[in-house]
UniProtKB/TrEMBL annotation:
Solcar repeats lie at residues 2-84, 98-189, 210-295. GO terms for cellular component: mitochondrial membrane. Pfam families: Mito_carr (PF00153). It is found in: Mitochondrion membrane. InterPro entries: MCP (IPR002067), MCP_dom_sf (IPR023395), MCP_transmembrane (IPR018108), Mitochondrial_Carrier (IPR050567). The chain crosses the membrane at residues 56-78, 103-124, 210-233. One of its GO terms (molecular function) is high-affinity L-arginine transmembrane transporter activity. Its main location: mitochondrion. Keywords: Membrane, Mitochondrion, Repeat, Transmembrane, Transmembrane helix, Transport. This is Mitochondrial carrier protein. The keyword Ubl conjugation does not apply.
Amino acid sequence: MKETYCDFVAGCFGGACGVFVAHPLDTIKTWQQASNTSVPTAIQQIYKRNNGINGFYRGMFFPFVTTGGINSILFGVYGNHLRQLRRVCHSDYQREQLEYKNMFIAGSIAGFVQSFVACPIELIKIRLQTHHYYNKYIYGHKMTPFWMFKRIIKADGFSGLFRGLVPMMCRDVFPYGIYMLAYRYTTTYLDQTEFVQQRRRLRSEDDTQVDFVVTTLAGAWAGILSWVCVIPFDVVKTIMQAEENRQYRSIWHCLNKNFKRYGWRSLFRGSWMLVVRAIPFNAATFLGYEYALEWCHKYFQVQIKSSPKYY
């Protein structure tokens, strides 16, 4: 029970760290995908239409608070399912042979569960980020997350909060399995290098067992690898969530219409910014997660039989 609690707490802290570091890049990426513009044009439009540098942090408070909750669900569900999958193994040998497979399954299940919570949150965040107005007011109302929530409910009903759920599940389910698997595989590989082993020998028992370099590199690489294969789904999700007139009936209708109108390159709009954003976001997320998990395990005196930092 304490292990599960630690997973949720560490995931929450890691998610908040990721948002704090990478939100400006996320705003540029979202604006690019919603308006089909280049990076310089998106930066210029965000700066001009939002009264300077503050535009890059528009809508940050909402994801800063909520992304912690989303990551809490993601890492909590992942850690719990991974432990359950390990328990059904009949021997240590079988557990070792199925470890990577179990990580992929647990990560995919976690991605599936968190998508139902993340969809309404990302919808509100994207609407706040892409609203084409020069100030924070529209029709005499301040554009807050709660005001946007009420606006969506009034216009589309409760189901409107799940606009773009299908492309989001295509983006999150299997890629989160790849995400967890890539992180574990990379940390295992880096731990075997002479550079890292030498750093560990110089570390005292009282020092943190989290290696800053390994966690940063592994987190960044896992983020890049899990994103590059699903960029079109993220573009479609952003387009469907940003528009308010519901001109797209489905994910395939959106894909087909944008392909005919702008060509295949439009389906990869914002890909460079997405990859650039993935580096600091996922590095910060895993750093926050690992440090918080280690502290939580010490605080609750949780004993882990194998290395805890990747589970």
